[in-house]
Amino acid sequence: MKKRADLDVRSLRIFEAVASAGSLSGAAEALGVTQSAISQAIAQIEQTVGTRVLDRSRRPLKLTPAGLALSRHARQIVDDMDRLIAQVQDADVASRAAVRVGMIDSFAATVGPSIVKQMSGSTSELLLWSGLANGHAQALLARQLDLIVTSDPMHDMERLVRRPIFTEPFIVVVPKAREAELASADLSELIRSMPLIRFSGRSHFGAVIERHLRRTGHSPRMHLEIDTSDVVMSMVAAEVGFTIATPLCLLQGRASLSQVAALPLPGPALSRTIYQVSREGEVSEMASQCFLAGRLALAQEAFPELRRVMPWLGERLALC
């Protein structure tokens, strides 16, 4: 019984490689193993079957009559095992759900990679959309996305599961060269000193900032309106103007970090909460995994980096 067990698929695969290459060294190169491993496998086969399977007196190596008999069946066994492994792997992939996720840009660019790494082993396919929160909300309701990470909790919609992830304050970002001059300025002085670089009014984020400006009695003239945080930060770094953003948006534009300065937003405080939103009773396990992975990445990666840049943030930046 033990001798029969010794004639395993690995040995047969090696035997087939030797028969095809006509040499031990050629088989070793083809399989990416040492020539010693090839020799040991052939010796094991010959010990198991009790006879020579290779005629070593000839170059290239030739199969003995016993080797020819073994070869007729070995290839079929190896092929059958390869098909079996492929079928098992396909069954495993089929059992894992495909998940479609939408994330606002600032979250996708900073926390998204860690979430994707965490989820990639649990799903057969992961589709990730980044972009504006409004588009994600519509895609979730139209069943084009399974869950979204958004600053819009969609409170007016029913049968949704809302998980608050974290809260962050709005901040002012100014050119580094003008930090000392503008550090103690109020919002009116900032607006007089430099143009305001706006986030797009088409976005939920931009609309929140515009409402805050109106509530506090400020009407900056239109200058620049941009969709993405990294472009906004590059404009501030180039001293085109200043902006009102959040710590996560600043981190998305990390390429400009050395050329900008982040200051508390003067006047009344303004903050936003980022939510994960999904449909009731759907992709519950994946939604929980995404939620926990996002919180872990924020706590271990994003928050420490942000607090190094803005030590005054304190508890204003916090998990929910």
In short:
The protein is α/β, with parallel strands linked by helices. The chain has helices spanning 2-6, 9-21, 24-31, 35-49, 65-95, 105-110, 112-119, 133-141, 179-182, 187-193, 204-215, 229-237, 247-252, 284-309; strands at residues 54-55, 62-63, 98-104, 125-131, 147-150, 160-169, 171-175, 197-199, 224-226, 243-245, 260-264, 271-279, 318-319.
Report the count of strand segments.
13
- Examine the coordinates and then state which fold CATH places here, giving the name of the CATH topology of the largest domain: D-Maltodextrin-Binding Protein, domain 2
Task: Write the CATH architecture name of the largest domain.
Answer: 3-Layer(aba) Sandwich
Number of discrete domains: 3
Question: What does the radius of gyration come to?
Answer: 31 Å
Q: What would you note in describing this structure?
A:
Keywords: DNA-binding, Transcription, Transcription regulation. It comes from Pandoraea sputorum. InterPro entries: HTH-type_LysR_regulators, LysR_HTH_N, LysR_subst-bd, WH-like_DNA-bd_sf, WH_DNA-bd_sf. By secondary structure, the protein is an alpha/beta fold. The chain folds into 3 domains: 9-91, Arc Repressor Mutant, subunit A, CATH 1.10.10; 95-165 and 274-319, D-Maltodextrin-Binding Protein, domain 2 (3-Layer(aba) Sandwich), CATH 3.40.190; 171-269, 3-Layer(aba) Sandwich (D-Maltodextrin-Binding Protein, domain 2). The chain contains 14 helices and 13 strands. Strands 4-3-5-12-6-13 form a 6-stranded mixed β-sheet, with helices on both faces. Helix 2 packs across helix 4 (35-49) and helix 2 crosses helix 5.
